[in-house]
């Protein structure tokens, strides 16, 4: 019997493969969880940015224009028509549209808000809800749009 045999037995080889497999499965699971978390957080950030853009644009229109109208006719778009006169009778000269196919928009103005808004008359509360179409993520934003009266 030769005691100077060099090499690895089958049991040692199977034990090493089992340990490497366990470590690889743990590493891949951790990586996949990290990727899913990153995708979710990126979608949340994009929805927050979209909400901020819509609300800041709406506030800017409310503070600087004479009259405007908000249309949320489809679930994937919000349109603001800006009029040149305070009575909202002249044809709309400009239009701002927010449209992202990956999101569903729901813009709710407080009860009693007229269809065509004259910003000099009163302030309005609104709730903007953006939902991601590919997941159950939702971002809701409540604010009040107002115009500062600086007449002396």
What does this structure look like?
The protein is 36% helix and 29% strand. By secondary structure, it is α+β, with helices and mostly antiparallel strands. The mean pLDDT is 86. It contains one helix and seven strands. It has one domain.
SSE topology:
Elements: H1 10-64, E1 67-71, E2 77-83, E3 94-99, E4 103-109, E5 116-117, E6 124-132, E7 138-145
Antiparallel strand pairs: 1-2, 1-5, 2-3, 4-6, 6-7
Observed structural traits:
1 helix, alpha+beta, three-stranded antiparallel beta sheet, four-stranded antiparallel beta sheet, 152 residues, single chain
Task: Describe the global form.
Answer: rod-shaped
Strand fraction: 25-35%
Q: Biggest sheet: strands, sense, closure?
A: 4 strands, antiparallel
How many domains comprise the coordinates? 1
Tell me the number of helical segments per DSSP (H or I, 4 or more residues long): 1
Short description:
The protein is of the alpha+beta class and 152 residues long.
